[in-house]
Structures are given as C-alpha cells and as structure tokens.
Amino acid sequence: MNGYLLAGPGVENAYGAASGNSLDYAYAERGLMALTLELGDEFYQECNAFDSEIYPSNLDVLLYSAKISGNPFEMSMGPDIKILSLGSNKIPQDSSFCVFAELLQAEKVDPFGNVTATLYIDSVQIENFVLSKSIQKFNFSLEATDLDIGQHMLHLEGTDEYGYIGPKSSIFFEVCDITKDETCKENTAPCPPINPNCAEVTVTITTDDYPQETSFRIFDSYTEPMSGSGYTGQRSTYTTNGCLSYGMYEFIIKDSKGDGMCCSYGNGSYELKVNGSVRKTGGQFTDSESTIFSTSPVPASTSAPNSGNCMNVVVIIKTDIYPEETSFKVVNQNGIEFMSGDSYTTKLYEYPASSCLPNSNIYQFTIYDTAGDGLCCTYGAGGYNLFVNGIVIKSGGVFTNSETITFPSNTPVPAPTNPPSPPPTTPLVPTPNVSVQVMIKTDYYPEETTFKIINQNNIEFMSGGGYVDALTEYSTTESLPNSNIYQFTIYDTAGDGICCLYGAGRYELTVDGSLIKSGDVFTISETTTFPTNAPVPVPISPPVPGPSIAVYVIIKTDNYPEETSFKVTNQDGIEFMSGGGYTAQLTEYTTTVSLPGSTVYQFTIYDTAGDGLCCSYGAGGYNLFVNGVVIKSGGVFTNSETTTFPMSSFGTFELHENYQKPKFEEPKYEKSKVDNSNVFVKGNTRKIVKEDVNDKGEH
Known about the structure:
Structural class: mainly beta
Number of strands: 42
Number of helices: 3
Helix content: under 10%
Shape: globular
C-alpha cells in the first residue's frame, strides 16, 4: 500500500533486521499480532514532510492494519473493498442514493476469481452481489426504505472464492425528513457510469433443484471477463456484475446434465442485461444456449430524432480480419435503398451507422461477405447488431454469403420483385450446436492420459483426465456451438501414447454421431481439427515455424496439495499448460507437452495460502524441464513464482526408444531462504506455535 519493504534477513537498505521473536507479553504470550512501521526515510526529518509526504502515503496502510487487527492472518488474505463516497451523505427518507466503491487487492489469492460483496446497514445484512475479476471501481443504488430518521452506518465486506473474508469498509450517512429539513434534498439522477469506456453487464441466475449443474461464461476473441459456477442454493438467485470494455461478446449458459434450468426440476431461469437493458432471458434448453451481444453504446441518430413518424435504426458492424469483404444495405419493400455500409478497412473494428426511417415501410436488412465465410469465426470474432428504437432486433456473425432480416419483426415478409432461384433439393437446416463425444480407452497407465478441445481463439470447451482404471472406456459428451472451429488434442505425459507397449488403448472423436477421428499410436500428443470440412484458421500473426520443445513439469506437493497450481502461457497470455487440483500430500505429479520452439513462454507456480511449497508444511518443490534439461528447480516462494523460457536454444527434441522420464530433483536452497523456526498449524484459524524463549531471548 505504501511501497515499503519488509525488514528482514537479507533485505537491503533496512536499518535493522526483524528476527521474528518478541519478548513482549501480547505477542510472545498471547500470540497477538505486532506490527511496527518506521515512517519516513531519515531519522531527523523535517516536520513539514509529515503533512505533505509521510501522512498521505501511509494513511491507507495504517487504516488497513487497524481494520485487520482482530484477525490479521486470515483477514489479510481476503479482498479489500473500500467505500469511496456516497452520492450524498444526507438521504431523504424512502428515496434512493448512490454508493461509490472500489475493489482492492482481490488478486492476493486467486487473480482470476470472483468476489462476493456483502452489504450491511447498521450491522443488518441487506444483500449479496458478485463482483467479477474485471471490476475495480463500481457503484450501485440503494433505497433508504424503512430507515428511521437519524444517523446510520453502511458497511461493505468482500469474500473470495476460497472463503477468505476481507476487512469491512464503513461510512456514516444521515436519513432526513424532506418536509422538515431545508437541507434535505432529493437527488433523482441515476448512478453515473464509473468508466465511460465500458458497459455494466449483469447476469442473474435463478437456480433449479440442481444448482451445481449450472454455469455461464462471457468471452470475446481474447479474454473471458465474466463467468459463474459452483452454485449451491436450490431455487436461489445469484447476480454477477462486470464492467466490460466496448465490443462484441458471446454469452453461453450450460447445464451439465443436459436438461436446462426449467421446468422439470424447478423453475430456474437466467437474465442477461447490458446497462440495465435486458438482452437475453431463458431457462428452457438442453446442454447449453448462447447469444452474441454488444456492449458498445448505441450511437445517436444522424438523422431526425424519432418523432413518431420514423424509427431509429442503428447498425453496428464488427469486422473480422478481412474487413474489405463485408458490406450491408437496408431496403424497403420496393427495393429502394435507405442505408448501406461498405469499404471497411480496419480489422476487428466496430463501425456504427444510424438513420431514422419512415414507419410506413417494411424493411430488409442484408449483410454480405464476398468470400462466403461470414464474419465469424474462422478469421476473427466479427459480428453485427441491428437495433430498432434501441432494441436489438438481430445479432449474428455466422453465415456464408449473406443473411437477411425483415423488420419491424411483426410485419409479413415482402414478396420480392424478382423471385429467387428455387431452393436446393436438400436444403441445409442450420443447427445451433453440435454434439461432440470423446471416448478414451486407457492403457495400463491411465493417469498419463488427458485431452482437451479448444476453439480457434484458444478458449477451452471440453477436457478430460484423472483416469484411474486401466483398459477402461471413459466417455465425455458436450453440446458445442457450431459457429466455431475446434481442435481436439490428446496427450500422454510419458510420451508413449496409449498403444501398444503398455496395453491396447485407443480414442474416438465423434461429432453429431459421425466418427471424425480414431487413434492410438502417438508420442506426446496428437491433434485433430473439426469440423473436417472447415478451413484451417488463419492466425492474425502467423507463427514463425521452428522445432518443438518438450516441456516437462514435476510438482511435488507439500502437506496442503490443494493450494498448489501452475500454468504455462506464451507472450500473448495464451495458456498452453496447466496443473492443479492436487489431493495427495508429498506426492509427485507430472505434466508434459510438446510446444512450438519459436515462442517465448512463462511458467508460473501458485500457492493460494502464500507460503509456497517448502518448507514450513513439508518439503515440496517443483522442477521445470525443457528437452530433458532442468531449467528451474524451486519451492520457496510466497504466492507465486515465474520463470521465462527457453533462455537459449535447446535444439530439436527427438523421442528415442530408450527415452526415460525425467526424475524429480530435490531443490537446493540457501540457508537464508529457509526458516523453520516457527511451526504453523493450518485450519480455520491460523495460529503460530512459538518456541519457548527465556528472559535472555535464548531458546
């Protein structure tokens, strides 16, 4: 918070090293936290430096230390939500007011997790709402209903997905009587947007009798800013909020059992809102349901405003990586053109157009692609939105040469002047999803086998692993959007496939009942692209060809294996490897994959408790091998540790008959890095068991 370093052994520029021992009664006898802050940067500092520099830079950390003093070891792990201000500190009774707040330090345990904010007024819990990882500053509106005239206190408290509760933030406000107090004035203006360059997206989930089956995701071409899962309450309502940058997104809701949210097992439902406007509602589906939506503001009409004689029509085109192929036009029932757009030049860019069209006509909007591959998704996640009087009439992007929509939506389809050519004998019936089934028959070493399915944007849709039974068939089925191109990859961590030296294993990939690929003999991995007639996606920045490198990660857990995870990403943040969900103490877990050697990677290992893998809770550690060479061996860190590789050329990796799995090498540490003087006992309350210290400070 203030940029100060912790004074301890080996810390430079510290006047004295903190030994970790204390003879005072509060800490040594009762285990109470003691925190000393040495303020300023010199012994005899000028007095005016206190007001101008020292006090402003240290106020936040002093307030935070005071708030966590009741439970410092656990509360400091939780998210910190800070109330910035109220729209007014004097609120008329039964009126609304705005609360401005900020989510701080949510990344201490899980940088990708959501935070549940709990709101209290006068120590009475009012509501819970979920803040997504994309939110920093946020606001919300409250009703001063059923509150007595006088002073009240509002509290906000954050809880992360691991159950860590952060400190409360509080602020006083006064409820006043507008009929008796001249200074009591009602503010009718709504809460203003915090970020003018993002839109407030709200997803509301009302669960059925099986809440654990429901999940949702919101993603664009590169990121997944919002998601929700792990629901536990039957027929309960959960709300997730996020401030999403302007752009096109896809919302997908899933039910793991394939029976949706309604109505056989309760009247579950979902609702998607953008800036308070409902974009999608539902509940009756099978495996999943998706919709494409835009968070960009609807531009004001470039023609006359809607006076009742015309309708405001807005078209937003988001191009793919071939913008010159896209165009659109809007014509009436007589073929007269009222709107059009073409000659786009910028890739993955949003182009708006608007006009106020006479209400007396029926219109057709048609979007074209000269290459016959639409706007999504082979060559970038483009799309389009058609708004009429502020309402989304159509959003899409997956088509071939063209797609046409008639509006207003309650009008009959006009008969064209020149009838189209007769339809083909067997018309193509588009389906929203494809059924994908993966069958894995294991060999004698089932734990070595995993698979995953990703789309052209490297977003994962299916995965499998954790197999335990030899020579056993495991089957996984999902319903995936047919707007994507997918890659199925099967992996074997030992590099000997699933056949035939160690048992006759095999795999099958089936799409809509048709066998796409079956196999058994491979080394480290094997990849198949489907649908089989789809062109291979052209990346925006084609990779430079080069040899592959074999990356081998060995994790040896400590006494708390569930705290450990890792991932490997490239320079663009795309994930290539990951590991986690470990359950066995002091056990080695191995993951390996063959990666393109032309890319720079970052390996990051995480510990959710912030105490690394060694050595207070067992001698855990990790090894990172590249082409059989140990690049990094470690275990002593706090929340995370990152290593960039390759650091030099390792040549081409070739799998030989006598290839042996790398063996775990115990990390070697300097004495100054390992301190076992304290023994920690983990549980709901973390305690420090101190060794006895006599009056001289000796053990």
